[in-house]
Amino acid sequence: MTAPLRFPAEWEPQSAILIAWPHPGTDWAERLAEVEDTYIALIAAITRFQDAWICVADDDLQIYAEVRLRSARIDMGRVRFVPFDYDDTWLRDSGPIVLRQGGGFRVLDFRFTAWGGKFEAGRDDRLVESLAAQGLFGDAPRQRIDFALEGGGIETDGAGTLLTTWHCLHERHPQASREELDAKLRRWLAQDRVLWLDHGYLEGDDTDAHIDTLARFAPGDAIVFQSCDDPADSHYRELQAMAAQIATLRTADGRPYRLHSLPWPAPILDQGRRLAASYANFLILNGAVLMPAYGDPADARAAAVLAEAFPGREIVQVPCRPLIWQNGSLHCITMQLPSGLPG
User: Fold this and answer.
1) pLDDT above 90: residue 19
2) Assessment of whether the complete model's pTM goes beyond 0.90
3) What b/e string do you get for 186-211 counting C-beta neighbours within 10 Å, with b at 16 or more?
4) What is the DSSP letter of 90?
5) In a domain, 240, yes or no
């Protein structure tokens, strides 16, 4: 008899965090030095708690990355380099979605279209296949699914409830009804139900409202969400409507969720363009939560909210202003792998 599938929550034990080193052939080329500094700070934080698997486009890049990491006194015993020639570094969306199946795993390989064909993604769409061929998933089977879905567009509580946004899924699949999309997500991701948010967006976001920039599950039937309390801000109406809808959501057994509201940072502009700064784009590790920091007074308040939502975990701030120049943040460039993988 085949063991049932389960989509683990991000706060469950992990084996490693998967990332890809930025290089001149990626979108980071214009500001590579400051972006590399953010990646080094991120890897330093990850390796305090667990392994970091770093995709590198070629041998020269691996040598360069290793020199930079060693000079920053990174624990190289917790670093593994993985060769793969990628288009860009947004591995939350091009990377594997791993389900548990009994004592093993199933690796889901959804089609990656660079957020609806906005950018070139031919190499990134082959990432999961390449990682599987290199043995990174042990003997776990890879299931290719011809359906556009990004990891940043879905959030699970590990107990059968999925949280997502209608805008994102509808943009990817405009001909499909909500009922059709609901059924597909539940079947492929082994979920009992899907909670749909109809509001919420960030200026500068080209993912069409990924859930990981807006609202996230936390242990103990909790939801952490990005709020906006400035009526003069362009986000105010949508994020207030999102908060009101989140307040109506119920757990599988009918109880209200415990809600944690993240503060709103002051607008961050780049040559007049508003950047998508969200504290909801945090990354959960074994024993820690890495929080995007923007050099704003709200950083400290956001850290306090996350400490309340994730008791017993260290809250580590990672400077992410360089990342939001390309419309993403900490969670967007990472993908966790569950404990035990590879087998």
Assistant:
1) yes
2) yes
3) eebbbbeebbbbebbbbebbebbbbb
4) -
5) yes
Has 332 been annotated as catalytic? yes
Nearest Cα residue to 330 out of 212, 228, 214, 219: 212
Q: How many domains does the chain have?
A: 1
pLDDT of amino acid 1: 61
What's the pLDDT tens digit per position in 142-183? 999 999 999 999 999 999 999 999 999 999 999 999 999 999
In a domain, 343, yes or no: no
Q: Given a cut of 90, is residue 122 above it in pLDDT? A: no
CA distance 315 to 190: 30
Considering 55, 168, 320, 332, which one is annotated as catalytic?
332
Domain that residue 175 falls in: 5-338
Cα separation of 6 and 105, whole Å? 9
- What is the distance between the alpha carbons of residues 281 and 58, in angstroms, rounded to a whole number? 29
What is the domain-level CATH number for residue 51? 3.75.10.10
